Predict the 3D structure of the following.
Amino acid sequence: MKNKDYRARIASALAQIASSLKDLGQEPEKTIPVLGAADAYHWDGDAGVLMAVPRVNRVPLDMLKGIDAVQDILLRNTEQFARGHGANNALLWGARGMGKSSLVKAIHGDIAGRDGFERLVLIEIAREDLATLPELMRRIGREQARFIVFCDDLSFDNGETSYKSLKTILDGGLEGRPENVLFYATSNRRHLMPRDMIENERSTAINPGEAVEEKVSLSDRFGLWLGFHNCDQATFLVMVRAYADHFGLEIDDETLRARAIEWAATRGARSGRVAVQLVRTLAGEMGRPA
């Protein structure tokens, strides 16, 4: 009897050791981050976690001037999505400093602060983390919220392959894009790749047309293409006045006009970014925050 008890204890101990060794050999399962009170997050692809952004760097929607047509289209598309209706992924492309990323953040803030919509969460993903996009989709696809995944300054250069992950998510692939997720991106390039890269692919390919189709067709997978173009002087002056009023700067129209024209000439450009840079300079001269 004693031998039987001894053998039973040994067998039990060996079973426990085997179980422990098995557990050590397994990677711990990553858990889905619980969404807290924040309505904006940054996706850390390396760590596989969502980091809350308590305060988003954005301006009110009514401050954005000179982009009324594209603003109306993107706002309507986002409202439809936040109501659970049909909506399209969007590519905002064009001139630098004309409010592409500002518009995405402003529209999210406008809708997230209103009643009558489902919870709308903005997730920023860096271009370098696009390869982890499928993992992010699997996580947020099960959450009780609607998500705009936003990539700023999206483009691809020679040798990059992360565009394939984005292409699969936008249109195609076995899993595809979850119904509670939209993808918004901004870019200075309409086709997300430089012209010399396209020409190089064509010159070295057996079939030049097919060689670039995989990369160029990425743009086609965005349902909305919204173009942002350089503004004229009248629009630039409207932008400057809007920012000056927003920050409460007491400055007459003639003085502001003269400073704005001089500022644009020295910068060699007219855009929303140039306008707000001028207004910050004026606020500093007046001893005001901006």
Observations:
- Strands lie at 40-44, 49-52, 90-94, 120-124, 146-151, 181-187, 224-228.
- Residues 233-285 form one domain.
- The mean pLDDT is 83.
- The longest strand covers residues 181-187.
